[in-house]
Specification:
This protein is an all-beta fold. It folds into 4 domains: about 15-90 and about 290-295, Immunoglobulin-like (Sandwich); about 90-285; about 305-395, Immunoglobulin-like (Sandwich), CATH 2.60.40; about 405-480, Immunoglobulin-like. The chain is about 0% helix and about 50% strand. It is built from 1 helix and 34 strands. The strands form 8 sheets. The protein has a 6-stranded antiparallel β-sheet, with no helix packed on it. Residues about 105-120 have low confidence and may be disordered.
Length: about 475
């Protein structure tokens, strides 16, 4: 007699709602609901994988061009979009491609290799949580030791942040900065038994700890692993000159930016660039099948807002954005967004809806743009129930030569500095409103451009002034940290 085990995939908790398209004006509308009515936030994409978010909420109305036309599964004519629950999903600090190839090419071993039983504060990693999420595991790599190894116990510890725990002599100014504080959580597990010459072994310590935080008020924590021998995912960039923070944070792989690693220590000092653990987590109760398909294959020309016109034009030192609507049903407000590549958009301004059933005229002047080349604009309409729809994209060509671009600006403390056409070395210094130097870095242009990422999340919100100097030019730009 044989036992039979039948494994059935869980049914999708999502149901596609009434969806349709309209050819004049050209748009497609999609909707979906969650069973059995749990609170959720849907993000919509125009493709099954990759791409940018085209809308958020239970229902959206978007340009047909942002969707997939005539997908076989939807029939012809049709338009397809894919939704995913952004309030309930699984994620990881590192992308799967990084984990599969770990340790990274050229990576060096972390401080615990050959140093089993290292003190808990010797090699911790600083993380920032931007949403309540549950840590489910911490991964390290047991290297090829050349001899049989294990079993040995490993312990992962979550620490509160102590803003004055560690002295940084290389920082500007030299002072005490973030470091591990009180232990909040520990989990211990016995590691594997590995034969000689086993090769690098990915080892995960199961966890069950909930981090707090919001997008506007992120919370800092530290993660440390102690016990047996291991090395790290040495994938992080070097520290920013004069700072204890990495030049570029390591963001999670979900695209929602809910978790980031921002720094690490080696034996209670800021040196090197490794010490990166992988962390897995859940937000809510994730539906593991990811994006689900919704088809718009019937005519439906009803929109909460009817865009009559939308234009963007150069005017003086700014860019004038205007749009008009013929009706507004349950419209709360509009968001003006801009982009330098036509794909990744950043919010510029929020404009309250007038709420008239007849003609509504709106305008906004973008005076803060430091962008050069093509600048892309779009309007996001947000309903009273939180759903959103997107206008078409308009493009302005500035026709201006070499200059410093701050992306985005305003920002949350992380931004990119770009100078097209720069081949020489560029020195960058950031000053606060009192004229005090708070940050500096330098780098070499590659002949066609210069680009660097800057992180000042540890600094207070406010206005800063960025001074950039190359061999033949100098610029001063205002940076607003929200």
């Amino acid at each position: 007699m044989k036992d039979t085990v039948e494994i059935t995939a869980p049914a999708s908790p999502y149901t596609a709602g009434t969806s349709g398209y309209c050819n004049s004006p050209s748009y497609a509308a999609f909707s979906a609901t969650v069973n059995p009515g749990a609170k959720t936030t849907l993000a919509w994409y125009g493709s099954a994988t990759g791409g940018s978010i085209i809308g958020k909420g239970g229902s959206i109305s978007v340009s047909q061009a942002s969707t997939t036309a005539n997908l076989a599964a939807c029939g012809t004519p049709s338009f397809a979009a894919w939704a995913v629950d952004t309030s309930s999903y699984a994620g990881a600090l590192l992308p799967s491609t990084t984990i599969a190839g770990a340790p990274c090419a050229g990576g060096t071993s972390g401080g615990s290799t050959g140093e089993g039983g290292a003190t808990p504060s010797s090699d911790p990693m600083e993380i920032m949580s931007y949403q309540s999420l549950n840590l489910t595991g911490a991964s390290v790599i047991i290297p090829n030791l050349g001899y049989a190894y294990g079993p040995v116990s490993y312990t992962v510890t979550v620490y509160a942040n102590n803003p004055t725990a560690t002295y940084c002599g290389s920082c500007t100014p030299s002072a005490s900065y973030d470091g591990p504080g009180a232990a909040l959580y520990t989990a211990t597990v016995t590691g594997p038994t590995l034969p000689a010459n086993n090769g690098a072994y990915l080892f995960t310590i199961p966890m069950n700890y909930t981090l707090s935080g919001t997008a506007t008020t992120p919370v800092k924590y530290w993660i440390g692993v102690t016990g047996g021998q291991y090395t790290y995912f040495a994938c992080t960039p070097a520290y920013t000159a004069g700072s204890y923070l990495w030049a570029t944070p390591q963001w999670d792989n979900t695209g929602n930016k809910v978790l980031s690693a921002v720094s690490a220590q080696h034996y209670s000092s800021y040196t090197g660039s490794g010490n990166l653990f992988n962390l897995t987590f859940n937000v809510g109760n994730p539906y593991t099948c990811g994006r689900f398909l919704v088809c718009a294959n019937t005519i439906n020309c009803t929109l909460p807002v009817d865009f009559i016109s939308f234009d963007a034009e150069k005017q003086g030192n700014g860019n004038l954005i205007t749009w008009s609507t013929a009706k507004e049903e349950d419209v709360n407000y509009y968001v003006v967004e801009s982009s330098t590549d036509g794909t990744n958009f950043y919010p510029l301004a929020k404009v309250q809806a007038q709420g008239n059933t007849s003609l509504n005229n709106y305008s906004y002047t973008d005076n803060s743009s430091d962008m050069r080349g093509n600048i892309y604009y779009r309007i996001v309409e947000v309903d009273n129930n939180g759903n959103s729809s997107y206008s078409d994209v308009k493009t302005i060509s500035t026709g201006i030569g070499k200059d410093v671009v701050i992306i985005p600006n305003p920002n949350n403390g992380t931004f990119k500095v770009e100078i097209d056409g720069e081949a020489s070395q560029v020195n960058i210094v950031l000053y606060n409103a009192m004229g005090q130097q708070v940050y500096q870095t330098s780098g070499q242009g590659n002949g066609s451009s210069y680009s660097t990422n800057i992180n000042i999340q540890s600094l207070a919100s406010g206005v800063y002034y960025l001074y950039a100097q190359s061999a033949n030019d100098s610029w001063v730009k205002k940076v607003v940290k929200e």
